[in-house]
Amino acid sequence: MVGLFGVRFGQWGLGPAGIGVLLLLPVCAAADYLRPGQAGFHHCALIYERTQRTADDLLCYVARVRQGKPVEWLFDSLLFLRFSMPSGVRTDEGPMTQADWQRHLDDWFSPGRDLSALDEAVERASAVLGKPPAPRTVMLSIPYPNPRVHGFRLPDGSAVHLGTEEGLERAARWYVQEAARRFQRANYRHLRLWGFYWMREEISPPDEPRTRTVARVIHEAGFRFSWIPWWRAAGWDRWRECGIDAAVMQPNYAFVSWTHAGSVRRNRLAAAADLCRAKGLGVEIEAGDVVHSTADREAFLHYLADGAPDRLGYRDAACAYYLGSDVVETTAR
């Protein structure tokens, strides 16, 4: 069987012990996962910030490339997000200004990079493969609206406090409307704006009403809201109550598993699958430094093999893919 990245799962090279562990994994139906039809996407790649990302860089996300030529369609959805700003502030927790929020949009919508580059990459693949089955869906992250920010200055000159419902709503509405306006003005040929992503990977009880406020703004604008919590993060099992439309959980097996002398057992992926089925989430497939690390490559193969339809089945559900900042580009060269 050949997986999403062309890996033959029968060729493990793990030895009898590793194969034995795989054979002990339960065979489970995927009925309760977040289904692609519910989510509006199937395979969503996370695209983190880089100084520049061109159509050449993004071609290998929209299509599998062999010897420089697209051979079949790959990711149907892409989530654009950034982890930090040039000032060093983190987008999932730090107190960011309106200028920081706008910097997200300025970069993503700049000519020749990110969104326009993605559209051009799909156009190039279409010249070889024909028109894609559907427009590629795009998600844009919303920086965490830190409630300590008092002087969030909107384009109309007013300053709002993100710790208040009114201030949060006004900031979120400006961001969502501005993103939608730029997207519509760009008139992309092959892209559709699916919606937005909650950047903070946990939703604590105090943040639940704030998340619902942002969700209401997004829904009123006609878009959807996604979230990818880390392993059993606060709020992971209350994602619907928080206004989220599509949630995918990180097993975090790739980074702290036994392959890295960590404390996470080999059955973490099965445990994650059980939790995600129980609460209707998808499963994130995570790649560490698979280019240089044998342990990381082995862990990544575990994600792909365990998610096969005749095992845990989560690859048939809505999936997100953490692939670092350039794993796909590097392996495609």
Q: What percentage of the residues does DSSP assign to strands (E)? A: 15-25%
Shape: globular
CATH-defined topology of the domain at 35-249: TIM Barrel
Low-pLDDT stretches: 6-31
Q: Termini distance? A: 24 Å
The helix content is 25-40%
CA-based gyration radius: 20 Å
Order of helices and strands: HHEHEEEHHEEEHEHEEHHEHEH
Biggest pleated sheet: 8 strands, parallel, barrel
Tell me, rounded to a whole number, the average pLDDT: 90
Q: What's the total number of strands?
A: 12
Structural classification: alpha/beta
Given the structure, what is the number of helices?
Answer: 11
CATH class of the domain at 35-249: Alpha Beta
Order of strands in the sheet with most strands: 1-4-5-8-9-10-11-12
The second-level CATH architecture of the domain at 35-249 is Alpha-Beta Barrel
Structure, described:
With 333 residues, this protein is of the alpha/beta class. The chain has a domain at 35-249: Alpha-Beta Barrel (TIM Barrel), CATH 3.20.20. It has helices at residues 15-24, 36-39, 55-62, 98-108, 114-129, 165-186, 208-220, 253-256, 268-279, 294-306, 327-332; strands spanning 43-48, 63-66, 69-73, 77-81, 136-142, 152-153, 159-160, 191-198, 224-227, 246-249, 282-286, 319-322. The strands form 3 sheets. An 8-stranded parallel beta barrel has the order 1-4-5-8-9-10-11-12, surrounded by 6 helices. It has a two-stranded antiparallel ribbon with strand order 2-3. Helix 7 links the parallel strand 8 (191-198) and strand 9. Helix 3 packs across helix 5 (114-129) and helix 4 (98-108) runs parallel beside helix 6. It is globular. The two termini are 24 Å apart. Mean pLDDT is 90; it is low at 6-31.
